[in-house]
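A.,

Following up on our hallway conversation. Structure tokens first:
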């Protein structure tokens, strides 16, 4: 059975990951969708540039991922873009298409047919072998008026991000205002929390001058 198919690039709620002609013409960065539909318009969350964009069609493939964890091997199925490339020691999040379980993994082996390769595109990969890792990188969007700064933090997979409490970025504390969960839903009530391994993005704000967020 052919387990690959074509999908339209995911527009998660009011966000999309595309190239910015002003600050990131080579690599995708997150944008806020200002106008969806046939002629979409978005605002770059890194530099604030507003521009139109095209929604490409992305071919996806379901790949077997075997995760080593505390002496056991867990077999998962991950849906990945065919043109994405992996290297040995790459870190990524495996989200099983059947159970929804999420595990941060470091790649140890890339099986392509009867060969093992140091790097390969998803379209050529039959099985990814990896080991579960304790820490993972979580994206943080820090908002101040019309400008949003993109940042990342590295935390354990079971670390709790809590709405109303602070996230520490480069030694500074920023109050969390909402959390996007993998799959698209949000947590925005004070006290709501999400484990790091289930977080798509954390939204925080710069405190008013002379004021601090909650710890």
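Then the amino acids I'd put at each of the 215 positions:
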């Amino acid at each position: 059975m052919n387990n690959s198919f074509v999908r339209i690039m995911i527009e998660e709620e009011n966000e999309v990951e595309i190239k910015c002609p002003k600050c990131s013409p080579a690599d995708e960065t997150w944008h806020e969708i200002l106008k969806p539909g046939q002629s979409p318009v978005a605002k770059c969350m890194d530099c604030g540039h507003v521009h139109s964009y095209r929604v490409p069609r992305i071919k996806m493939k379901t790949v077997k991922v075997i995760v080593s964890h505390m002496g056991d091997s867990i077999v998962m199925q991950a849906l990945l873009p065919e043109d994405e490339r992996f290297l040995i020691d790459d870190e990524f999040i495996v989200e099983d298409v059947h159970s929804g379980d999420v595990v941060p993994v470091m790649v140890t082996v890339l099986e392509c047919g009867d060969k093992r390769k140091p790097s390969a595109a998803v379209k050529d990969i039959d099985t990814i072998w990896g080991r579960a890792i304790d820490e993972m990188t979580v994206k943080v969007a820090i908002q101040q008026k019309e400008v949003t700064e993109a940042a990342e933090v590295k935390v354990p997979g079971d670390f709790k991000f809590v709405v109303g409490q602070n996230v520490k970025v480069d030694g500074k504390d920023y109050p969390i205002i909402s959390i996007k969960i993998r799959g698209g839903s949000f947590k925005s009530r004070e006290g709501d929390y999400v484990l790091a391994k289930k977080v798509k993005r954390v939204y925080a704000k710069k405190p008013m001058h002379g004021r601090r967020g909650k710890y």
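The chain has three domains: 4-55, 60-132, 136-205. Curious whether your intuition agrees with the design.

B.
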